[in-house]
Amino acid sequence: MSFTNNFQNIKIKHLFYFHTPFYYLRKILIYTCLTFLGVLVSFPFLWMITASFKSLEEATSPSLWIFPTQWQWKNWIYVFHSAPFGRYFFNSFVVAGIVTIAVSINSILAGYVFARLKFQGKGFLFALIMATMMVPFESILIPNFILISKLGWYNTYAGLIVPWCANAFSILLIRQAFLTVPEDYYESAQIDGCGHFSFLLYLSIPFVKPALITGALFSFLGSYNSLLWPLIITADETKRVVQVGLTVFSGDAGIRVNLLMAASTIVALPTIIIYLIAQRYFFQESIRVGLKG
Amino acid sequence: MIPNRIKYKKRSDFFIAILLLFPSLLVLIPFFIFPLFYALQLSLWGGKRNTGIFVGLKNYMVAFQSPMFWQSLRVTLYYAIMTVPTTLILGFCVAYLLSKILRGRTFLRILFFVPYVTSTVAVAMVWRIFYNPQFGFFNSILDLFGFPVQRWLLEPRGVLNILSGGVISPQWGPSLALVCISLFDIWHTFGFAVVVFLTAMSTLPKEYYEAAQIDGARPLQVLFHIELPLLSPTWLFLITVQLIRSLQSFSSFYALSPSSGRTMGTTENLMLHIYSQFYEYGYWGYGSAVAILLSIFIMALTFIQWQWTRRYVFYQ
C-alpha cells in the first residue's frame, strides 16, 4: 500500500462519491433491473410448480393468480399412474449413469496418455480425437442410426448408451488437469517403483478430481437432457427415457395442464438439484474450456 | 546402454498408450469418425431407406430446388438472427450490472443459470401453456391491457404483418410462432452468456480500472473504452458458440411447434426438416445431403472459433 498524495485524493473522492444521491440512485436502479430479471427468470419455474398442484379448472383458467386455492397433492401420484414415468426415470438414470461412469473412466485413461506418455503417433491420435469435437451431431445422426440398427441395437440400452461412452471434451478437460500435476511427482513415483496404473489410481486422481467432477456432471446432464437421439433410437415405452416420455405425454395429456406441469416438474427436478448442489463445478473449469451445449 | 533403455521405454509406452486409449477409440472411431464418411456416401444414394440406388449429386439438386428446404433454411437463419444478438446483448448487460454489485451477485448468477441446465423439453412445456390461446398467460396479459389476443405458437402469419396491422405481407419475415420459439430460447440460454461474460470480466487486469479512475473516467467511459475492447475475444467466442447452437437447435422446435403442421412450415428449421425427411418419411439419402450441407456451414464456424480461441489463449 502506498499512501502518496495522489492515492489519498482518490480515496477522498471515493468517500465523497459514496454519499452522493447519484450513488444511491444508481444502486437502486441496478438492483431494480436485476430483481425484475430475476423474477422473469424464475417465474416459469414458480408457475410450473404451483400449477402442478392446481385442480384442472384452476390450471386452465385465464386468471393471473399463480397459487392454487386448494393444493392438489395427489397430482404428482396421478402422473405416475397415467404414464409409465417410473419406467422412464429408471431408463434415464440407467443410461445417464452408465454413460457418466464410462466417460469418466475413458477420459481419465485417455487424458493420462495425452498428458504424460511419449510415443510415436501421439500428435496424430490427439488431433484425431480432438477433431471429433468439430463433428456436428446432425451429420452423424443418420449413419449412426443405420449402424445401430445393423448391430441389432435398435430399441436397446446399448443403442442409447454405447455411442456416447467417450467424448473429446471430457478427454481435453482431464488432460489439461493432468498437465498441472508437477513433473517431479511422476519422476519420484517412478523411482519408488510406481507403475502407470498405481500412479493413476493413488496419485493422479486427487489432482484431477475437480475436472473429473465437472466432466461427469456435464456427461450426466447432457445424457439426461438429450432428446433427439433417444427419440429416434427407441420404439416403445420399455426403453423410452424421460425427455421422450414427456413429449409423448404432452401429446396424450393434451389439455390436462396440471398433470403435464407435475410431469415437467418431476423431469426438471433432478437436474436442478444436481446443479444447485454442485454449482461451483459448473463455473470453474467448464467456462474456460468452453461448454458444449 | 542408455540409448537402449530409452528405446525400450518408448516401445513400452506405445503399447500402454494404445491399451489405455483403446476404449475411447472404440467409441469415437465407429460412432464419430466413420459416420462422417458414411454420411457422404449415403447422400449419394436415392430412394427410401435401404432400397435406394446410386444417384450421384441428385439429392443436393433436389434440396436446392425444393421450396421446403429453402423455407427451413430461412427459418433457421431468422431464428439465429433473432436469438443470437438478443441473447448476447442481454447477457452482457446483466453481467455488467452484476459486476457492479456485491450483495446478491452469487445468488443471482446461480439463478440466471438455472434455465440453461434444465431440460429444454420440461421448461418448453411451461412456455407452451403460457402461449396457449385460450387460457395462456400471454393472452391474459394482452387482455388485461385491452390488446387483441393472439394465437402465438399456432400463428403462421408474419410478426411484421401483425404489428403493422396488415400493411406488410404475411409471408414476409419470421412468423409469430417462430418469434415465440425465439423468445423461449432467449430466456433459456441467456444465463450462459451472463456466466461467461461475468467470468471474463473478473479476469480483466485491475490496473486498467485503476488507471481509468486516476484519469477520472466515468463508468460509461470505462465500459466503452476499457471493458468492451478487452472483452472482444469473449464476444467472438460467444457469437460463434451461440450461432452454432442456434443453427443446430432441435429440442425447442420439437417441443414447441404443434405437431399437426398448423404453422405451415414457418416453424420447421433445418434440423426438423432433416428429422422429418429421414425419420418420418425414410429419405435417408436426402436427409444426409441436407445434414451435410448444414454440417459444412457449422464446421466452418467451428474452425473459425478454434482459430479465435487459440489466438485468445495466446494473448493471455
Notes on the protein architecture:
The complex is a heterodimer of chains A (293) and B (316). With 293 residues, chain A is an all-alpha fold. Chain A has 2 domains: 5-73, no CATH class; 79-289, Orthogonal Bundle (MetI-like fold), CATH 1.10.3720.10. Chain A contains 15 helices and no strands. Chain A has helices spanning 5-18, 21-51, 56-59, 75-82, 85-116, 122-131, 137-150, 157-161, 168-179, 183-191, 196-225, 228-233, 242-253, 257-277, 279-289. In chain A, α4 (75-82) crosses α14, α5 (85-116) runs antiparallel to α11 (196-225) and α9 (168-179) runs antiparallel to α11 (196-225). The model of chain A is unreliable at 1-8 and 289-293 (pLDDT under 50). Chain B is mostly helical. Chain B has 2 domains: 1-37; 43-124 and 156-315, MetI-like fold. In chain B, 74% of the residues lie in helices and 0% in strands. Chain B has helices at 2-42, 58-65, 67-100, 105-117, 120-130, 137-144, 159-163, 176-202, 206-214, 219-230, 232-248, 251-256, 270-280, 284-315. In chain B, α11 (232-248) runs antiparallel to α14 (284-315). Chain B is globular and about 75 Å long. The chains are: A mainly alpha (293), B mainly alpha (316).
